[in-house]
Amino acid sequence: MRRLWHELTRPRGRKAMPFAGAGRRRSGERGLALLMVMASIAIITVITVELSYDGRVRLVKSAHERDKVAARYLAESGANIYRLILVADQQISGALGGMMPEGMNVQGLWQMLPAVNTGLMRMLFTSGGSVDDGEIEEFQQEGVSDEAREESREEASKFSSKGFLDFEGDFEAEIKDMDGRINVNRLGRSCPGRTCPSITELQQDPIAQQLYGLMSGEENDQWFYEHNIDRWEIIGNMADWIDLDTNRVFRGGYEDSLYQTLDDSYLSKNAQFDTLEEIRQVDGWQGEVYEKFGERLTVYGGGKINVNSADNAALCGLLRAHTTTPGVLNDCDGFIERWQSNELISFQSWTKGEEFVTSAQDRAGVVIDDPKKLADSISFESKTFLVESTGLVGASAAKLTVVYDFTTSKKVGRIKYWRMD
Hints:
- The chain has a five-stranded antiparallel β-sheet with strand order 1-2-7-8-9. A two-stranded parallel sheet has the order 3-4. Strands 5-6 form a two-stranded parallel sheet.
- By secondary structure, the protein is of the alpha/beta class.
- The chain folds into two domains: 153 residues, no CATH class; 198 residues, Ribonucleotide Reductase Protein R1, domain 1 (Orthogonal Bundle).
- The relative contact order is 0.13.
- Helix 4 crosses helix 6 and helix 8 packs across helix 13.
């Protein structure tokens, strides 16, 4: 009976073996835990990498912004240096002007220092004051090395307690005389109401004649012929851009028709140019014409050409507008070189319009159509200057273009244009 009772009452099934499968359950739980740990590590790794990358991007961006701001201030420094030079030039020329002998003019300080480059200054400090062509070429290609920059700081600090050149980066600045160029904003002013009704009237305008003279000569004649460009047409288009009406000076018609068919159409401004680059918007001046003649044009200044600072091309444009002498029309550069050798005008400055006209007639043999008209179209001092200054810090660069006008404010000058790129 006991055996029977035991058989009937003994535990059966899974409950009978409470530890059955425990090993399998623990092994499954350990696999799930390992999977969760690996997933957690992967998620944390991704988050860490993302945070690290985001932090690095922010750091690099902040460094670039810092260098960009520093480059902007370096560009302003270059422009301010030239403003100080121009202010000093105005004061010196005013003080010495009455003391100079008749027939001599004071050369401007800006002419003695036409460009400033702190990178080259560093090279001079580190090389002992002399550099060869190979070093200059290497500098133009690679810039200043960190070692040379650090050495220049140490050398320059000997000359000033403030540490001249003791700053990060460099700047280079250049000054350009706007009064030695042809002012295209004065184009057509001789016509009634400053609007020439036809190309015939425009051809009598002094500035139009100077522009045509600038683009004349045997070499230019061939160039315009090869490019199939009519010089009076593009001069007329420039006059249309400035004048107040909507009629084309060259062959009549509606002046805005030149621009309305473009993909990005626009209208003629019918107002003066604000910048030199705006000239590129005039039909015919967009490409090679501006590249070839743009350096002799300006939209600033009083309109008269300073014969003491104008280059040969601008002088040729001026002379061709007032003479039909074959030597001037065909080989003007050679003509001016011979004139300079006879007059020694490269070593002195003109002070009177009559002197310039007399020299052109007597020493150079130029037949002037209207001597008074030529004398009235020239000047002998510059009051308007364009300064281009570029600051460089690391991989960042900033370019400042500023125009200083000393026509009315001779003490400090007036800023007529300011642009930071």
